[in-house]
TrEMBL record:
Residues 177-211 are annotated as: Disordered. It comes from Methylorubrum extorquens (strain CM4 / NCIMB 13688) (Methylobacterium extorquens). It holds the Pfam family TrcR. The lineage of its organism: Bacteria, Pseudomonadati, Pseudomonadota, Alphaproteobacteria, Hyphomicrobiales. InterPro entries: TrcR. It comes from the Bacteria. This is Cytoplasmic protein.
Length: 232
């Protein structure tokens, strides 16, 4: 289906009043029903609508109209504009727009994000729920005017953001977080087998030393007794 005029009924009114085009031709060009065009001609439809000249608006040429008036089966074609407008690129910068009906839920969503994903930066929270840095700081410090009534609620459940957006921001925050290096926790306790082995060995050596001294002392005592017996 070809593109129709910008204001179809107003254009049809002008074509009915200023040309001898057939109702079918006007209906085809304006994307209307032929009976609706006939009603415009009879004054029953589009009463009070001022006709719009498609020639001055650049939607039709005079040659195109004259060609169609000479051939009742000819279909009018919209004139191609010679001026090309640049495409409007959609920007994603700035905070997310939040509907009025959902704005009262934003503090609850911010509280949920702060508690469940403390690794998220303020800029990420702003992108997710469309808030301000000052509001985030107030909720963190419990200085928000409604802090006593806030309840942490999932922003996905509230419809403030999608699960894909939330997962993306969480993954980005995890990548930006510095790696946690293993820290020296101080001296560690040794297993009992290791810690008790030297002590046991020392005790055994002491016991051996004590036993050896006792044996030599006993031998010396016995030798003195034998000497005394010989003297007698």
């Amino acid at each position: 289906m070809s593109q129709g005029p910008l204001m179809p009924k107003a254009t049809a009114v002008w074509l009915v009043e200023n040309t001898s085009l057939a109702f079918e031709q006007i209906a085809d060009f304006c994307k209307l029903h032929p009976l609706e065009v006939k009603g415009i001609a009879d004054g029953e439809v589009a009463a009070g609508i001022k006709g719009l000249d498609p020639i001055t608006t650049g939607q039709l040429t005079r040659d195109e109209i004259e060609k169609a008036q000479k051939a009742p089966n000819y279909r009018l074609k919209v004139a191609v504009s010679k001026v090309k407008l640049p495409e409007v690129k959609r920007t994603t910068k700035g905070p997310r727009y939040t509907p009025l009906s959902r704005r009262q839920d934003r503090p609850n969503a911010i509280l949920w994000l702060i508690r469940n994903h403390p690794e998220l930066k303020d800029a990420q929270v702003i992108r997710l729920v469309g808030t301000t840095k000052a509001t985030i700081q107030q909720i963190r410090e419990r200085t928000h005017w409604n802090s006593a009534s806030l309840q942490p609620m999932d922003p996905v459940t509230l419809g403030l953001c999608s699960q894909i957006d939330l997962d993306f921001e969480v993954q980005r925050a995890a990548k930006d977080r510095p790696a946690v290096l293993p820290t020296d926790g101080g001296a560690k306790l040794l297993p009992t087998e290791v810690s008790t082995a030297p002590a046991a060995a020392e005790r055994e050596e002491e016991e051996e030393d004590l036993n050896a001294d006792a044996v030599f002392a006993k031998l010396k005592g016995m030798s003195r007794i034998d000497e005394d017996d010989d003297e007698v």
